[in-house]
Design a protein that fits this description.
The chain is mainly alpha-helical. Helix content is 45%, strand content 6%. It binds flavin-adenine dinucleotide. Flavin-adenine dinucleotide (FAD) binds at residues 276-280, 283-284, 314, 317-318, 321-322, 325, 376-377, 380-381, 385, 402, 406, 408-409, 413-414, 417-418, 421-422.
Length: 441
């Protein structure tokens, strides 16, 4: 029984357990011709990140499969025409046209893709060719959707804090035999400081230089392929492989983690990165294991290198918020994408694309975003998200903007954060109240 593995562009873990099950008569298919990978509307850094990270993954996977006769088909963009075609392509359609020319597989297997729409397209494809459909295990997440479904069953309100406590117990992170380390589950009350004037703030590098060969080649060519995309490629520094991601983790833990906690909610004009980790791209793409990242952070606290509030704060974001948002997205169903509880219908202000505005905080966040493909959580929530909501912007328009301009975007995480947390379009599934505030939130 042959299996066709449809490889997702955002799951680049070449150490995945399922790869050991690939047999000689199986086929693996991966394509850059995917409108969620490339196209004219994406921040150019997100395009570079995806193409580079996917190409480097291909090399690691080929290496892992070197003793296998399985066929690995990888479709690569190589010209301006192909770059245009990629922006309107869907991987399932491309796969279907390939399958029409060959014997259909008995089984189609994939990790869960990034959106409801992509998942239903693959299921339909399997139906169309009469193949069984299977979802593969995915080490990017620590809570299965069955576990999340069981946790949310019968609850009137979904309170992230309670979910987080279960995740602490499940992973054993920052746990002592008698309960949570330090005697409390949450040290957030220590994490709300403004950055004092005499605190040294510089813009950290998230990735590592010098850039590897594959990324350098993509950087050289992408300007011709995608000449009018938003954003600048100049300061590209995202990790595109696991070793770089590991290095980025070490530099975060060594240089910024101690101040991550206290200044987690702060805004500062000297840097859009402040003391944040910049690890979301690496964790979301499967370049960095979330448990490894949290364990390194816990170790730094146990060794006395960082305060408990920093370590607990980071771990809560990763095993709490990240897993919670994913659980909400998948268990709410595809209708979540259409919610509009506040009945908002306007377009975004033009300044969201140009950074041209008299509002200094918006100018700072949007110009930093265009330069780097990044803004930290409070900038996303309390500057652009807040303004978009007060402006009465249609939540789906807001979601599209975050999807296209952030290097770490993927629908399963962008949607619950925008439609839910930021725009309150879900009427209170993700949060208890809208994040509406003045400058002194
Ligand atoms: C409107 C809005 C849109 C967002 N869109 C995205 C998105 O497209 N992709 C994305 O990964 N995150 C998104 N977030 C969540 C969060 O802002 C980012 O994960 C974080 O800013 C990424 O930067 P960092 O890696 O420096 O995170 P840090 O501040 O260093 O936090 C550590 C890690 O915790 C996780 N995390 C923290 N908060 C959240 C959260 N609310 N949801 C999920 N994971 C979280 C991330 O993996 C992050 O890397 C969004 C938040 C808002 C308010």
């Amino acid at each position: 029984m042959s299996t066709l593995y449809l490889l997702q562009p955002d799951c680049l873990d070449a150490a995945a357990s399922w790869i050991s099950d690939v047999r000689d008569d199986d086929t693996l298919f991966m394509t850059e011709f995917d409108r969620f990978v490339a196209g004219p509307d994406w921040h150019i850094q997100r395009v570079i990140l995806y193409l580079s990270a996917m190409r480097r993954f291909r090399a690691r996977l080929e290496n892992r499969l070197s003793d296998s006769d399985a066929e690995f088909v990888y479709e690569e963009i190589g010209s301006n025409e192909e770059a245009k075609e990629a922006g309107t392509s869907d991987p399932s359609d491309r796969l279907l046209s390939r399958l029409e020319a060959s014997d259909p597989p008995a089984r189609i297997a994939t990790v869960r893709p990034a959106s409801h729409e992509a998942l239903s397209r693959i299921r339909n494809l399997a139906d169309d060719v009469g193949a069984e459909f299977e979802l593969l295990p995915d080490a990017r997440f620590l809570c299965t959707l069955d576990e999340f479904g069981a946790w949310r069953e019968g609850r009137k309100r979904l309170v992230m804090e309670y979910f987080y406590r279960e995740m602490r117990k499940k992973t054993g992170l920052m746990m002592e035999p008698e309960g949570p380390a330090g005697g409390e589950w949450n040290f957030d009350d220590r994490n709300r400081r403004s950055v004092p004037d005499d605190e040294a703030v510089s813009a950290p590098e998230f990735g590592v230089s010098p850039t590897d060969e594959v990324t350098t080649e993509v950087l050289d060519r992408v300007g011709a392929w995608f000449p009018s995309n938003p954003g600048s490629a100049e300061r590209f520094d995202w990790p595109t492989g696991p070793q770089q991601a590991e290095k980025a983790l070490r530099s975060f833990v060594g240089d910024r983690l101690a101040k991550f906690g206290p200044y987690q909610d702060a805004l500062h004009t000297a840097s859009g990165r402040l003391f944040h980790s910049g690890l979301a791209t690496s964790i979301n793409l499967g370049l960095l294991d979330p448990l490894d990242a949290c364990s390194a952070v816990e170790e730094a606290w146990r060794d006395g290198r960082v305060p408990i509030s920093s370590a607990e704060g980071f771990i809560r974001q990763v095993i709490g918020w990240r897993e919670f948002m994913r659980g909400v997205y998948w268990t709410e169903g595809a209708d979540f994408m259409e919610l509009n509880a506040l009945d908002a219908g306007r377009d975004l202000p033009a300044s969201f694309w140009t950074a041209e505005t008299d509002m200094a905080c918006v100018r700072h966040v949007v110009s930093g975003l265009l330069e780097t493909g990044y803004a930290h959580h409070i900038q996303r929530l309390m500057v652009t998200g807040l303004l978009a909501m007060l402006h009465g912007t249609r939540p789906q328009t807001v979601h599209d903007w975050y999807m296209h301009l952030y290097a770490d975007s993927a629908e399963w995480v962008t949607a619950p954060n925008t439609i839910g947390m930021s725009q309150f379009a879900d009427g209170g599934v993700v949060g208890t109240k809208p994040y509406a505030a003045s400058g002194k939130y």
